[in-house]
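Here is a typical sample entry:
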Amino acid sequence: MASNGGSGALPKLDRGFASSATSDPAVAKACAAGGFLGTNPTDHGWSLSGVDSNDCAAKTTLVAWGRSETDMSFATSRARFSLKSVLVATDFSDASRQPLGHGLAVARHYGAKFYLAHVVSGFGYTLTGPEALEAAAGAAKRDLLQLEQQLVESGSLEGIEHESIVSKGVVWEELQSIISQNHIDLVVLGTHGRRGLGKIVLGSVAEDVFRHANCLVLTVGPNSCTFDFGKTNLKFLFATDFGEGSLRALPHAISFANHLRAKLVFLHVVPVAPVPEHPSHDVLLMRDAARMACLRRLEQLLTNEEELALPPEYLVHFGRPSERILQLALKLKADLIFMGLRCSTHVAATPRTHWATAYEMVCGASCPVLTVRTQ
């Protein structure tokens, strides 16, 4: 990657799923007693990012995976899938080095073809003319060839079918074309997580991919630990709000966990405000009832636990989902977080804060984050 691509129209997030998360009487009572983060949980829906007790509708972004109570066998019936192609988009910066290792490891584990791509942005060459752009593209080809040669000499590409691609133009549009033409299943990219002018080179392009890519996206943020595929005690965190997104997303979490023999931790965060320092007995009882109800729903996400190579773990917590998920990922020393981005094709009037908050959460995670964007 090189520079900022055109973001295009922003998809509108669909928040009309929250009633499934609060339909259980015990959960509804706990939300009411603890102070649900929003004026009405069934109106707004909660998600993992930017939930504000005064403006839930304006700041909530769905970045959680959940499932409805219908078609319970859908997710696990497709728990095995294959990755046939992996793309790493690089701008030759330090932020793109770590994703390179992640992409190679995934390609090796799945026997996938590995693509390494760089886009020379036309931005900045308008005044200098096409000759300058061609010269920059030639230099990028030499740099990419040198990087590929280094990977060959180090043995990183041994046994992996691979291809390098240099393109020029609007960065996101070119990457989108590469993804489509090569039937990419997974894009791996890094971001330094900066805002404003500081993110022009990599951050804004990563955000475009994060928002618009129709394939799996593995984002490696600046605070992310190195994902060691050789570990014997890998731990993956799957966060769910019991929404429809998991009907498409959960199979990926299960498949990755089985393929890498990782422990899969199911997490649901009930979006309520913190309890008082000395809560009443009734509030504590309602919280316990809500926790048990949510634990039962988590357990129902798997129709057959034998489909997981290792026994799963189920956790229910209370608080702001975005904060609690990142806190628990750090505490559990999670190696990978799974999240779903559910949006609709209606693009009008979607505040940038929806996607920006989700993206900032990904950038702030202590481990890589794999996201699936569903329509």
